[in-house]
Amino acid sequence: MSDSSAPFEVPVTPEVGLTVAAVARRLGVAPATLRTWDRRYGIGPSGHSAGAHRRYSVEDLMRLEIMRALVFDGCSPADAARAALEADAGLARESVEPDRGVAAPTERGRAGGGQVVPIHGGAAQARGLSRAALALDSPAVRRILKESLNTRGTVWTWDNIISPVLVGVGERFQSTGQGIELEHILSEGVVGALREVAESLVEPFGSRPIILAAAPDELHTLPLHAVAAGLAERGVATRMLGARVPLDALMSAVARSGSPAVMVWAHDRITGDYLDVHALRKMKSAPAVVLGGPGWPGTLPDGAVLSHDLTEAVTRLSNAARGFI
Known about the structure:
The protein has 325 residues and is an alpha/beta fold.
């Protein structure tokens, strides 16, 4: 029996190319997201003819597929775009140095020589973290992360160590179909280290915590743990509801806690009907509604704001906790 709900995929040819709407359907993202990626990161259509809209070529689509996969795996759009462009240009290089342990870190160099996880940019410790994940060395993963979190803080560690390694692991999986175990080791270590930071907050500002939740059917919560840790460093308490949180459960948590703000994360594409921002804003605490992740549609629910990176999310939520928004 045929599946009438299956997406209709238009074949792409070098002569014709694809429109932005066709590529959006093919990738499962909003057309507005594709335009944003083009404008901000240079990942866009290369084909153009006089009097016609620009069209995506086969090569353009391949770059977008890499970027989409990395973003959906939790990488920042900027890192994902850089990796996609480097892969396209043949610049992704893998070191073949023998494994002699993690080298002493330098400010922007690379620690060690990880043999199969490419690391694009990032700090020196990113290379050491990738090698620890390759060795399935959970204690080393936690040790590297803890040291960086203690000395540099959550946002720097996320942007310069965690995100580049997630990009590399995602690339490895895209090219070889292997590496799920690396992702799991890395994710467990990251969550544990970030949770330790979040739980270290003893005297939070105020008595009303920020609510963090993933959208219904959304299993990815790693970025929410980074937000919780970043807020703890600013003296702001959070309550982590975790994955797959229905709207009624979110509203109940807000009502019981009097939260001044909520953040809802969505990796996978969802409809704008999920989040009743108007109902949330009408609650007694009138919480600010901050969204995160690539799963939100191009047109956001009225009254909500979208944070594009960890710094923006932590700043918005911290301001809300202090009554600035």
